[in-house]
Design brief:
This protein is of the alpha/beta class. Helix content is 41%, strand content 13%. A 4-stranded parallel beta sheet has the order 2-1-3-4, sandwiched between helices. It is globular.
Length: 246
Amino acid sequence: MKSYYIASCLFTARFPEVSLAIQKYIDARYSMDVVRCCIPNFRVKPNEERIPEGEAKAAWRALPTHAELKPGDTVYSLCHNCTNIVGEQHAGVQALSLWELIDRDEAFVYPDYSGLVATVQDCWRSREQKAEQDAVRSILRKMNIQYVETEKNRGDTDFCGSTLYREQPAKNAKYAPKHYVEQAEGKFLPHTEAEQIEIMREHCSHYATDTVICYCHYCLEGLLQGGVDGRHLAHLLLPGFEAAAF
């Protein structure tokens, strides 16, 4: 039985320095194998080319493209697509979130946000992952953040940024049909970019706080489109790395 961390192609392309910092944490704390993607040899060259030149890209090139998963293995990731695909494609493999791993690390040093009041926004893609949702809230408390719940939270959330209002990548429906076909009725219907932004602005107008914290890069995209102070949990855990503009 082995444990792996999937670094996520898209998260790494958008936030290469943060992704590299997480990879270094995983290696130093757990000596866990780090791989790029949940799908064997998926768009290897295009995904690599999206990462800017520098230390993060050099480290990415050294990573295996995927893990040869076997029953009894455990996979951690901050990408909900990876979690769902591993869960549907690999029977007997446990797919968990990075947040669960960090939450149970008694040696992790949490930054102190001095009672920051923020809304926590759950993700539709991880609506079934109660343990992940619990870990996120535990981490927020450890960082001295007072969080406010949304009206539709946890398993009832229907938010994943503007991605639910445009066509999804074919790989999601192919490799995780339960999540992205059977349970996605009314989702991933094409809207214009202007319509997507308007939907995000309407959604964000209902938050009770200026700052909204998410743990999904798609959700973050939607929060920023909606005009709020959107923060990704990874950036809060690793201060000094700023969220990129979308």
